[in-house]
Amino acid sequence: VKGKGRKERMVPLGAHALTAIRRYLEMLEGDPRFNGHVHGEARPLFLNKHGKRLSSRSVRRKLDKYLKQVGLDPSISPHTLRHSFATHLLDNGADLRSVQELLGHQSLSTTQVYTHVSTQRTQEAYDDAHPRAEAG
């Protein structure tokens, strides 16, 4: 993955994501936009109809289209998905440093923003479930 500042980093993919990417690539087999490399660099995975890398605006438009198709909240954004990813990792025990790497944050303090949500959820779970918990 190339992030901000064109920094490259490796990100793990789960089985469902790999299956979806394989299907996508099979659909595009033979499409000249995906043939070979350009200037020694691998081509971007997701291209627009002109064979160029998708812009962030195009990603947003595609997400909006699919959210509408399946009846989900139209306010969901790529950033919402990224935030949910980080929060789920932390809520399920991932360490902050690993989440920092996965998100590509240079500074751990940037990643720590997500711990507030996780701490809040922990408090809510305690307040809801513990018989002696007092709200506040």
The residue-averaged pLDDT reads 86
Number of strands: 2
Distance from N terminus to C terminus (CA atoms, Å) equals: 42 Å
Bin the strand percentage.
Answer: under 5%
Helices and strands, in order, run as HEEHHHHH
Structural class: mainly alpha
Outline, from the CA principal axes? elongated
The amount of helix comes to: 40-55%
Note down, in words, how this protein is organized:
By secondary structure, the chain is mainly α. 52% of the residues lie in helices and 3% in strands. The chain has helices at 15-27, 56-70, 78-91, 96-103, 108-111, 113-129; strands at 37-38, 41-42. It has a two-stranded antiparallel sheet with strand order 1-2. The protein is elongated.
